[in-house]
Design brief:
It is a single chain. This protein is of the alpha+beta class. The protein contains 10 helices and 17 strands. The longest helix has 18 residues. The two termini are 34 Å apart.
Length: 338
């Protein structure tokens, strides 16, 4: 086992940042800690790194109790959101920093730095300074510096948060490929659901300091464990269980609310016994799909996602009268406010 978190709690004043968290992360896996601001994900990452000490519980790294270990003794690589590169050092010097601190022989340092420059696709830029690099390139230097000391664990705190959307997208793909090459146990913090779904082997969904669910991207999306997980991982319509949309299709629940994914809303041009009437309030073209905002006759608003092919077939227009039905909906055993 790479990382084991046992009953870990951490409180700052009256605020309970991490609350009795249990978590196991397999050696060599790439795991995302996902949640909104204040959910405890960054605090948990810092506890694993040794930058924070838990009030209770313990941390095991590769089977050894590391709860009281100093940061420098944990053999962990840490990458921050804002790079934290040394501005007065070249790319090579930044990458070599940890190796120089360990007094590694110069020929070995040089060889390792060149290997890492090639690994992060920055060969030829070793003599530049951070100010001469793009944001994406600087973040790759930060990753190379963290990997230089061959850590047992790599921790990344919102590593792409300071970058624009296109660069973030490119670096996600790059990080996944990099991990597949180096296989170091990696944990990264993000509030971006798409980022977690695209990159991680497993997602840990956190809320109010607790773990709501752990699973593969497919598991947490298709089989959410709570209303919070379903509402946080991907878009969702929340409707009264008494809605005619469900009753017409024989979908019943004793719970007050039902959760319906936009891609599970079917739009038809002609009515039948399973549909209810609606009017298209707005159409939003998202490139790969079209989002339709629908108003039912009882004034409830429903969002539907259609593929471009389906949209082109239906030839929908704003204010058009259409007929809708759900392909499926979900209720939860215990309802709580989200």
């Amino acid at each position: 086992m790479g990382i084991v978190v046992e009953r870990v709690s951490k409180q700052f004043g009256d605020f309970k940042a991490v609350d009795q968290v249990d978590l196991e992360i397999e050696t060599g896996s790439l795991v995302a800690l996902l949640g909104p601001s204040g959910s405890g994900k960054s605090t948990l990452l810092r506890i694993i790194a040794g930058l924070e000490t838990p009030d209770s519980g313990r941390i095991l790294l590769t089977g050894q109790d590391a709860t009281q270990q100093k940061v420098q003794d944990r053999n962990i690589g840490f990458v921050f959101q804002h790079y934290a590169l040394f501005k007065h050092m070249t790319v090579r010097q930044n990458i070599a920093f940890g190796l120089d601190i360990r007094r590694m022989p110069r020929p070995k340092v040089k060889r390792r730095v060149e290997e890492l420059l090639e690994l992060v696709h920055l060969s030829g830029l070793g003599n530049r300074y951070p100010s001469q690099l793009s944001g994406g390139q600087r973040q790759r230097v930060a990753l190379a510096r963290a990997l230089a000391v061959e850590p047992k664990v790599l921790l990344l705190d919102e590593p792409f948060g300071a970058l624009d959307a296109k660069v973030r997208k490119d670096l996600r793909v790059w990080l996944r490929r990099l991990h597949d090459e180096v296989h170091v146990t990696t944990v990264f913090v993000t509030h971006d659901q798409e980022e977690a779904m695209e990159v991680a082997d497993e997602i840990v969904v956190m809320n109010h300091g607790r773990v709501e669910q752990v699973g593969t991207p497919a598991e947490v999306y298709d089989h959410p464990a709570s209303p919070f997980v379903m509402s946080f991982i991907g878009p969702v319509n929340v409707l009264p269980s008494t809605s005619r949309l469900f009753q017409t299709n024989g979908i019943e629940s004793a719970h007050p609310e039902m959760f319906l994914r936009p891609h599970d809303v079917v739009i038809e041009l002609q009515p039948d016994e399973t549909t209810v009437p609606a009017r298209i309030s707005r159409l939003i073209h998202l490139g790969w799909e079209v989002q339709a905002e629908l108003t039912l006759d009882d004034s409830q608003v429903v969002t539907a996602h259609l593929s471009r092919d389906r949209f082109d077939t239906l030839q929908l227009e704003p204010q058009q009268r259409v007929y809708v039905k759900p392909k499926g909906a979900k209720a939860f055993p215990l309802f709580y406010s989200i």
